Amino acid sequence: MPADLTTTYLGLTLECPLVASSSPLTGKLESLRALAEQGVGAVVLPSLFEEEVANGDGPPSDALWHADEHAGEAASYMATVDRDHLDAYLDLVRDARRELEIPVVASLNGVTPGGWTRTAELLQEAGADAIELNVYAVETDPYASGASIEERMLRLVLAVRREVRVPLAVKLSPYYTAFANVAHRLTDARVDGLVLFNRFVQPDVDIGAIEVAPGFELSRPEELRVALRWLAILRGRVDVSLAATGGIHTTEDAVKAILVGADVVMTASALLREGIGRLGDIRTGLAAWLDEHETSLAVARGRLSQIACGNPRAYERAQYVETVGAANAMR
Questions:
Q1: For the purposes of burial, counting CB atoms within 10 Å of the CB of 20, is it exposed (0-12), middle (13-18) or buried (19 or more)?
Q2: Which of 8, 16, 95, 135 is deepest in the core (most CB within 10 A)?
Q3: Is residue 54 pLDDT above 70, yes or no?
Q4: Which run of H or of E encompasses 37?
Q5: Inter-residue contact 23 to 47 (CB < 8 Å)
Q6: 117: exposed, middle or buried (C-beta count within 10 Å: 0-12, 13-18, 19+)?
Q7: pLDDT grade for 56, boundaries at 50, 70 and 90
Q8: Domain 7-329 falls in which CATH fold?
Q9: For the segment 112-134, what is each residue's pLDDT rounded down to a tens digit?
Q10: Closest CA to 236 of 174, 186, 305
Q11: CB 238, CB 249: distance < 8 Å
């Protein structure tokens, strides 16, 4: 009998722990159907950006970015949004929900608390099964402390949490000084899941044109290691779902993430590079691995987390010393 891949993420039942993360593939009904045929557990739609929601004819009004909590906020917000762009995204949510029998997660990308967060309620009304809040920002203000940046992020999360009843996941970067504390505070803010980790688009320099150029690249498997460490540390310490993303290209990558504690594994780059059929390959490989090791998904999950493994310090600084020592011995 094939291994049972059923799992739970954000309180939703998924047929398997493989999730198609936000990408151009999840922005079209044709590819969404193809992903469903390959057995994906859920899909995350492309992000609706804070900047895209704002009217492109001019700078957003103060009501959009710094709206107070009063009855006029919603009216001020709706007067400043790009309705065409917003309506197109809401139509995608409705169409995906109608066409698919798997959970559809809408993605909202922003960093500034304000009236725009009311978009989350519209996504819920359109039928999104959950919302993934993608907190993406490169902090360049030399006068902004780490504590103030964390507080702003938490205010943003709470603003979205107030707007919706559906499950809420937060997609984070790993660049917080005390990441475990941030995860704990988000749990207190009643989020339902954490997605580890966001990938920043790094700029490049064109020395011919002497200008800064976009430097986007698809993920590589080695990028998964940062998420593996923090999934392992957080498993059993925070009462929320945990998702691994960034660097999931093979069955081996998926198994690693599950062993350290991921409830689901998200992939996009592998599908963009190798085709949607890659997802089916990973799913088949995961079931085969569970059968080979005569174990279940529930038993495998978190088996190598920091709490459960026999060498908990492997996830801390001691491993750094061991790794450097091993590298020196190879010289």
A1: buried
A2: 16
A3: no
A4: helix 29-37
A5: no
A6: buried
A7: very low
A8: TIM Barrel (3.20.20)
A9: 888 788 899 999 999 999 999 99
A10: 305
A11: no
